[in-house]
Amino acid sequence: MANQTASIWATALALLLAVVSSCRSKEPYVGTIIVDTDLPILHKGYLPIGVTLDPGKGGRDLLSPNLLLNGNFELASRPDGVGYDYTKQEVVTPNGSRLHYPLPEQMYGWEVLGGDITVESISDNHFLKVFARSTDSIVAFTQKLQGFSTEPGAAYRFSMRANAIGNASVTVRLTNDSLQPLAPPLLFTLNRPDSLYSGPITVTQSSPESRLLITIEVPEGEAYQVVTDSTSYWTRRSTAAIQLDRLQLTTTAERHPSGIDLQLFDLLDSLAPSFVRYPSGRTANGLYPGTYPIHLDTLPNPPLWTLRKNELTGDFDYKNLLSLAKALRSDPILVTNFGFTDPSTIQRTEDIKLLPQRIDYINRIISESRGAGIAIEPGYNLNGYEYNRRFTQLLNTLDTIHPNLQLISAGDRSPYNRYSDYPYDQPLPGITYDNLPLIDSLLTNEDPLLFPRMSSEVTFNNDYTDGYFLPPLALRVAFLLLAEHHTPNIRALGIEPLLSTDLQEDFPIIAVTGGHYHPTLLYQYLQDFKSLRGKNLCRLPEDKHLNSDIFVSLTTNDDRTAFYLKAVNVTRHPLNYQIKLTGKNNNLTKTTIVSYTSTQPSTSDNLEGFTHYRRREFTERLPFSGLYNYLFAPYEVVIFKFE
In degrees rounded to 5, what are phi and psi of residue 513? Predict the structure, then answer.
């Protein structure tokens, strides 16, 4: 009887499986992704992902507490031997190269609304010079705050140094773009010579855009008689000469000992980057020869990227980098000025005779690392004969002093493979759907003897007029999956920008709004990417990911009880795929799915609608057959955890 019952149950189960299999086989699908639990492990270890602390775009250091652009009026000095385009604020070199290069007298970042307001200097120290009269209708200037939206209750602090000859008052207002007030004004009476004035600003009204408006007024004086050759009259007219400097608008947020905002530190700590590099290239590359402002040597924490330690990198310096990297348990990478920059810009090469001084300077930097294991990258995204010549001299000098030197070549590293076994930059072209195979070849098709370890920091092409359209999130994920698929060839990977005030244009990891730091959808995906991945890279049965509409990578944990399949649909069409779970060790019974889907519901010619995503997470049981169908939404990004 027991055998008969067992036979009945077996028959019923077989019929059920046949029905399920029949139903699934009738569902149309466009391809199969095989998860074979028996395939060998290609590589043991995670793909390390790091960040570069980019000072930011548009002239304001996004690591600095100051929310104002050019708050100290200290811009690059006027360069010699080159042309200048005043309409575009650009230096023009003899070969036609252009560089955004605002001069101090242009009041870069500020707009004068009325009055006699200029930028002047004494001993190369620039400040705002204002000459005001009691009869002036308006003496005011303003700055539109980048990436700054206000909410009621937000608290800020304004400060400035001021000196006045004569009686004057300064009113500081936070306004909307139409100059309507968003907070009670601050009123300062300038009655102390060369003093610091500061006060709180608490927002009372919300606004998507904000300005800082500064108005200067001179009160009427005691009546006095004015006598001329032909007439005389009584007046109360008075004047004042005012100097304003070091204007700062800051949040009241607490700061980490390394100097960055505590909110930013918490986000970085949660992201756990494998390396922290500073600064990005355009700062470290240097100014023009002979144009470093000497007075910046007097700063209490001078930046260090030029020979005189005075390039304009803001408040974040070398000690901060070492402190932050230690707190984040990350490797510090310092991009040092090498006196050489973009070879296409002829005028920006320092005299080779100064190279011994610069090498000695880099040696001091390494010696001051206090055992932090600092890695040095001389220059940024450079190559060519001149760079190779300088790099060779650097190696010949420092190799004997620091036998374990961690040095990163910024150009073609093949002559220096011995010195580039730490993160290395492989410049990558802008990524679009049609050149992903090229990107993949750059990551993998190098001679493994010359390229044992690579690090790629990528910027992404947001111009979708050429090639295929990919939403920013799908574009970045496609590259990450390519990189993870080739983890054995990559020492570390960085994605930039880390910070930006323009979420739509730059799609950064962290958005900066009103001095506050907010994780973006890319930040959330990076967290999912790092938490939902196995330590071991699996080989896919068929290496067709570059020819497919679905890009994938597959990893597993050490005991193979969980497999992580990461995928992205790189088309604007919903695609029904079959995921085949196979292998003798296949004991997988459920899957947890983290999905990022576009708010655009289905196939559409309106590509802009695909740029906005929402995240969801859910769990499903796996079918007995091992055949699991999944309908990928247009441009969907998804992570499966099979266990």
Answer: -135, 120
